[in-house]
Amino acid sequence: SHPQPTFLQRHHADDAAVRHEIVDGLRQSPAHIAPKFFYDELGSRLFSAITALPEYYPTRTEAAIFTSAAADIAMQVPPQAVLIDLGAGCCTKAARLFPVLRPAGYVAVDISVAFVREALSSLQQRHPSLPMLGLGLDFSTSLAWPDEATAWLQAQGLTDRPRLIFYPGSSIGNFTPEEALRLLRQAHAVCQLGGPGGGLLIGVDRLKPVDLLLAAYDDALGVTAAFNRNLLRHVNRLIGSDFAPRQWRHVAVFDEQASRIEMHLESTAAQSVRWPGGERHFANGERIHTENAYKWTPAGFAKLLQSAGFDPRAHWSDAQQWFSVFWARA
Ligand code: AVJ
């Protein structure tokens, strides 16, 4: 037989809502565009290239932690849980951990179900008896657990299983501490809907010397610059604007006060950008804020987890203490 995953798409922002969100950010001063718009097809490939750069340590450091801590993680997290993978994409990080986490069900959540469709279908062939759900959900807006997903869990007999939320890659760093708290509280509520023993397995990038941080977000080959500027091509397609990517420069700075890397696109000329129904003038040197990447201390992040209702039970790091993985019970 050929088992197939189930696919669900929840409140997919329609084209008008996406246009409204982007145009609203462009009209503000300073202008901003949300980092979720980096990831069109080319943007996803450029991010994948970033993870292979010598300067971009997070991905390989986290992978090494998952390898070295595997036995420990297996002892701490509940087996036979429903594994809920936030920002699953190609599903490889979670799939690599299947032997460690031994889930009874797998839910791959991404902003668009299209992003997980192929990967999940092929993963299902390799795990024919593991129930799999692809869930399209913009959890950066809200992680409310959809009724359809509850119904799916019920149909699979997974209602009473613990829920194990997996949020790797320091994607939590895109959120301000206030936004992160909100998301983690919602994650906690999702865990509470399942059986006892559930919780959160999360990867977090750590505060470290600024030169290392800046290099990771402004690499020698200019891949991160291309990734940042590609946002303008994507926005052009989404709202019909006429951004000229050549007229914009990649800028990465570290804000010590906020403990975050900021990425910006800086206008290299006085120019106007037009789109159907509007336009905006940018002075030479004016910037569009495109991303925050917060860098946490383990103590600070443990406090955040506690504020969200979690009980931090275990913490693993690498020898250089560059990256942290937390296990926190709901
Ligand atoms: C996918 C959000 C974790 O902030 O490090 C990489 C994205 N931006 N280089 C990060 C990113 C520039 C990445 N996250």
TrEMBL record:
<dbReference type="GO" id="GO:0032259">
    <property type="term" value="P:methylation"/>
</dbReference>
<protein>
    <submittedName>
        <fullName>Dimethylhistidine N-methyltransferase</fullName>
    </submittedName>
</protein>
<dbReference type="InterPro" id="IPR051128">
    <property type="entry name" value="EgtD_Methyltrsf_superfamily"/>
</dbReference>
<dbReference type="InterPro" id="IPR019257">
    <property type="entry name" value="MeTrfase_dom"/>
</dbReference>
<dbReference type="GO" id="GO:0008168">
    <property type="term" value="F:methyltransferase activity"/>
</dbReference>
<keyword id="KW-0489">Methyltransferase</keyword>
<dbReference type="InterPro" id="IPR029063">
    <property type="entry name" value="SAM-dependent_MTases_sf"/>
</dbReference>
<keyword id="KW-0808">Transferase</keyword>
<feature type="domain" description="Histidine-specific methyltransferase SAM-dependent">
    <location>
        <begin position="19"/>
        <end position="329"/>
    </location>
</feature>
<dbReference type="InterPro" id="IPR017804">
    <property type="entry name" value="MeTrfase_EgtD-like"/>
</dbReference>
<dbReference type="Pfam" id="PF10017">
    <property type="entry name" value="Methyltransf_33"/>
</dbReference>
<dbReference type="InterPro" id="IPR035094">
    <property type="entry name" value="EgtD"/>
</dbReference>
